[in-house]
Specification:
The complex is a heterodimer of chains A (212) and B (326). Chain A is of the alpha+beta class and 212 residues long. Helices cover 47% and strands 24% of the residues of chain A. The chains are: A alpha+beta (212), B mainly alpha (326).
Chain lengths: 212, 326
């Protein structure tokens, strides 16, 4: 009996390494795959082009809607008197939640140039125009023209926002920013994100889509 | 009589985190009608899953009287590596070859990276006798820098539904991250309570010199524990990346503090040798409930930090008082 026990003990490490090796091989086999690089690149070029979509969306869907957007002062008046009506009439969103987006337009005087934004005095209120952080889904969703059901991938939906924001930053904000001076009048149109449950009209920030 | 009183005191000290959790839930439940809802229950558990993974690894390290400050950065790097390999694979233009990674492959690569970084921590600490605080602080910076290099400072997004399942999916009516963290906890409890390695960890934390003299290979145990902590940080990284559908270069910033807080609140002594995985789980739940409650009560995020800080301080003071009273 004792020799048999000894033999078993000696076999155990081999069994251990054997099982371990098999697991590693199985894992490796299911972990990587190899393809020709040119084939992969050719496939990738046929993927959804978020940049082109965003450019097209800005020109053909968002910009025409900016002209009919409510005046920011009228909108805030309505929000303070009849919040539900204002949200039902003018706001849009693609996601569930309290955050809703409004297209707005207006004009006012630049009263302060801050590091990341401009403080604007409109006839009825003071607000900020974003100049540095153009992000989020406000520009994509505020018009109500963006049809989320046409997309199957969440990434594509997010990339539209990302590309649209980049486009606005490059084509609207960058050319405008160096010319902006305190005391100048500015005509703006863009999007605003507001929380329906915790509405704060004292700190409105407009993400610009058009600046004159 | 004296002995009975002392044993009751000890039992009460062990139950402190549980009592604290109960009181916390009661207070928040009274102040917010949304707290005791099923959706909020799963929400809290889902949110704490990442911290539980980090904290379990941290508990093993702290039980040995060490500390691992690098877990947040390791989490970010491993999440980024997993996302990068899964989404972009590796291109070898000279061979016209593309090496693609399946979800399994990318995840394994991420976890192995975490384990490797943890191993490196352990190696530096044991081989060069660098204090764990300093070694892991250095790794915190190194891993964050590597994350920035790997991602070029930009998020890696659009990982797809298959990837998102790990962080957002449900299995048998329970969120997948909760399954993952429960498995991690189960394995860690087994390791700490039922294995030789677990006993060595407690022994080293209790008295390192005595452990050495009794024949425990201290360096080996330490390296293993830091490797485990790194691998668990990587698991946390996978969950965060999956949940956000994006690997953020700055992900996990400050997570090391949350995990240390969970460990301390859970009753694990920072001087080592005393504590448990279950205590840490309770600690993580307390932090999660506290965060959730403060959000539900509309407390400013700045105040949330202050409150959390004081809770940690209170936990340490209670630990000190308990230690003094024997």
């Amino acid at each position: 009996m004792p020799p048999l026990e000894k033999k078993n003990n000696k076999m155990l490490p081999w069994l251990k390494y054997g099982i371990g090796g098999a697991v590693v091989l199985l894992l490796a086999y299911n972990s990587v795959y190899f393809r020709k690089l040119d084939e992969v690149k050719a496939e990738a070029s046929g993927k959804f082009d978020a940049a082109s979509f965003a450019k097209n969306f800005l020109e053909k869907q968002l910009s025409p809607k900016l002209e009919t957007a409510p005046d920011i002062d009228e909108l805030t008046t309505m929000l303070s008197t009849d919040k539900n009506k204002a949200f039902d009439t003018y706001s849009h969103a693609t996601a569930i939640g309290n955050i809703r987006y409004f297209l707005v337009k207006g004009q006012g005087k630049i009263v302060k140039i801050n590091e990341n934004d401009l403080t604007i005095q409109t006839p009825k209120q003071q607000l900020t125009l974003a100049m540095e952080f153009i992000y989020g889904n406000a520009l994509r969703d505020a018009s109500g023209e963006f049809d989320i059901t046409k997309f199957t991938k969440t990434a594509d939906i997010n990339n539209v926002s990302s590309e649209l924001n980049k486009l606005i930053r490059a084509s609207v904000v960058f050319p405008f920013r160096p010319k902006a001076k305190e005391g100048d009048m500015v005509q703006f149109a863009g999007a605003v994100a507001l929380n329906k449950e915790h509405l704060n009209l004292a700190e409105i920030e407009v993400i610009p889509a058009s600046l004159k | 009589m004296q002995t009975t009183l002392e044993s009751q005191k000890k039992r009460l000290a062990k139950l402190q985190p549980l009592i604290a959790l109960f009181v916390l839930c009661l207070i928040i439940g009274l102040l917010s009608d949304k707290f005791f809802t099923v959706s909020n229950f799963w929400n809290v558990l889902r949110q704490i899953s990442v911290n539980i993974c980090l904290s379990v690894g941290m508990t093993l390290v702290v039980l040995m009287a060490g500390i691992d400050l690098s877990v947040g950065s390791v989490l970010a790097l491993c999440g980024a590596i997993t996302a990068g390999l899964f989404k972009m694979g590796i291109e070898v233009p000279s061979q016209n070859l593309y090496v693609g990674f399946t979800l399994l492959g990318a995840s394994v690569a991420g976890v192995l990276t975490g384990a490797l970084l943890g191993f490196f921590n352990g190696f530096v600490i044991t081989r060069f006798k660098v204090p764990s605080f300093v070694a892991t602080l250095a790794m915190l910076t190194v891993a964050r820098g590597l994350t920035m290099l790997w991602t070029k400072g930009f998020p890696i997004s659009g990982l797809g539904e298959q990837f998102a399942y790990m962080g957002t999916g449900w299995f048998l009516g329970v969120p997948v991250p909760v399954w993952i963290s429960a498995t991690v906890v189960g394995l860690a409890v087994f390791l700490s309570d039922k294995t030789k390695l677990g006993r060595y960890i407690y022994a080293i934390g209790g008295n390192e010199n005595a452990s050495l003299l009794s024949g425990i290979n201290i360096n080996k145990v330490k390296v293993i524990v830091y490797t485990i902590a790194g691998a668990l940080a990587a698991v946390g990284g996978l969950m965060v990346t999956s949940r956000l559908d994006s690997a953020q270069p700055n992900a996990g910033t400050g997570y090391e503090l949350d995990s240390i807080a969970a460990v301390v609140i859970g009753g694990t002594s920072l001087s080592g040798g005393k504590g448990s995985i279950w205590g840490t789980v309770l600690g993580a739940i307390i932090i999660g409930v506290l965060n959730n409650g403060l959000v539900l009560l509309n407390v400013s995020p700045f105040w949330q930090q202050v409150v959390k800080g004081f809770v940690i301080l209170l936990a340490v003071i209670i630990d000190k008082v308990n230690s003094k009273n024997g």
